[in-house]
Design brief:
The structure is a homodimer.
Chain A: H1 2-15, E1 26-34, E2 44-45, H2 47-58, E3 65-73, E4 77-87, E5 101-113, E6 116-124, H3 126-137
Parallel strand pairs in A: 1-6
Antiparallel strand pairs in A: 1-2, 3-4, 4-5, 5-6
């Protein structure tokens, strides 16, 4: 059940950008427990805060897709490994859009209570993304 | 069973550096399926190759410890999330030792066949490590 909820959440909210669907998935408070490099690392978000996070994150790569590789389930959590890709159409970390495809991989543990997602613990290969951004900015290098 | 094998493997091989124990854990061929930034990414290793990988990786941080946060098990794999720390006592990526503690987090899927580990899929926060290395080299920044 938790796996199916999570797959639906990733698809609707993160892949399709449907911020109105968020209230149906997350608990009243969603905690970003561990997410090195993420602007929301350590924060506790309500639904409006989470909507802002999704909108802001998707803005520079509006066609982004998380492709789940594997799902693992424990009593109160689901862990997924994933590949991410999207077209760089807006400024990221001060770097202007290149129109190129960006790729990233990561792993995320999502915590649940009463079928609601209460937060996550995440690792992403953010160095790989910065290297792509630099390479696209300076194609001769 | 796989979880216990993996915990023992992490402790003996990666935390204690016992390269003679490796042959008791891994299959004849160990494949580094996905490990962005790792020098062995994409390689298929035999026992000697794996011993070299462990020795080389541990040399600059000989007291390194992987502290497992959570374990998840599927039919043929175990996924762990972990925190890593160690003292920077040897050159890393051309940066001389600082004597400072380095910290990193990551997530790894280990694949099994007949209770032997056949390979892994891994994400680490390598950007976080490079930022620490740079900060330790230029403490005024």
């Amino acid at each position: 059940m938790k796996k199916e909820i999570l797959q639906s959440f990733i698809q609707k909210v993160w892949n399709e950008g449907d911020v109105n669907a968020i209230a149906g998935y997350i608990a009243d408070t969603y905690t970003v427990m561990h997410d090195p490099g993420d602007p929301w690392d350590g924060m506790a978000l309500d639904v409006a805060g989470f909507q802002h996070r999704v909108s802001s994150s998707r803005a520079p790569v509006p066609d982004q897709v998380f492709e789940i590789q594997e799902l693992y389930e424990n009593e109160n959590s689901v862990c997924i490994t994933w590949l991410w890709s999207g077209t760089h159409l807006g400024e990221i970390a001060g770097i202007p859009p290149s129109g190129k495809t960006l790729r990233m991989s990561g792993a995320t543990v999502y915590y649940f209570q009463n079928d609601r997602i209460t937060g996550h613990w995440q690792i992403t290969d953010r160095l790989g993304v910065f290297q792509q951004l630099q390479r696209n900015r300076n194609p001769e290098t």
